[in-house]
Amino acid sequence: MYSATVPQCPFSPEDTAAEEARTPAAAPEEAAGGTPTLSFDRVTPYVGYAGIDTLLSLKRTRTDEPAESAFILATQVMELLFSLVAERWEGARDALEADDVPGALAWLRRAHDAQDVLNDSWKLLADMTPNEFARFRGAFGEASGFQSYGYRKLEFLLGHKSAAMIRPHRAMGGVADELTALLERPSLYDAALRLLHRRGLPVPGDRVERDWRGDYEPSAGVERAWEGVYADDSPGHDLFLLAEALLDVAERTAEWRRRHLVAVKRVLGAKRGSGGSSGLAWLARNAERDAFPELWSLRSAL
Ligand code: HEM
What we know:
- It is a single chain.
- Helix content is about 55%, strand content about 0%.
- The protein is mostly helical and about 300 residues long.
- The longest helix has about 30 residues, at about 65-95.
- The two termini are about 35 Å apart.
- Protoporphyrin IX containing FE binds next to helix 5, helix 13 and helix 14.
């Protein structure tokens, strides 16, 4: 049982298209014959429910270069998956705050599946050549994944926080508010450390209560607390399972960054990024940064 609130279904009853689609005028003989319904007065329930026509209208290419369409699609697919991963990490964080470790493990397992699909999405761009990329790059101007608030949300949930990273989204009040709320509350990792503390492990006081807006810095005391968890690696030890499930999150996160880096190296080389950074060198620095650092560093001590 999860203590987290269930995310609201995007196709709420106020959605007129979805509502209309729920009242198909199916011909009775078709419905009764064991074959699919073929007659609808309005847009099919499927299209209405999942917003398919709206979805497909979003593939708005700006050039005649065929590879641009795969680039836009890959970006959109990844944004959708960023939001699914965020939902599941938030579920895990809320469960940890409610001392519900089995609930947190269930959310994390689902998040792993979503992260795997997210990482596999890079295959959509695997065969793009530098020439193809160069033919549409000018068309998106200063647009850059760096401006993705979905990705920033994930970074904040991991504990990689920076108030400056909210600045690009100032013009979108709701987004900036959402990011600020995440900045100001414990991350998924903070929630795990606070749970360890409640379970009697020696988590340093400055990790149990602190200014949550600060970026997470590694701590020797936290590493020792995790060592205490790893002292009992029996399959039924919930905190050990939690540590390994968090490490699975961190590993998948590193994998997304690695694949991004390779894709950039392949199509852009060392040219500057459209978002204003030095490009590859800047991304390589970010990719080096581990999520949940003590879960990695403790491996040298075990
Ligand atoms: C293969 C084509 C791509 C290239 C050449 C590329 C290039 C870059 C570069 C150079 C940056 C650094 C910021 C800048 O100066 O622009 C960046 C950041 C970023 N890109 Fe991409 N990108 C590509 C595909 C994608 C896709 C498909 C996504 C999915 C949404 C994405 C998401 C991001 C994110 C989230 C960042 C920020 C990373 C951070 O803050 O550490 N990129 N990209």
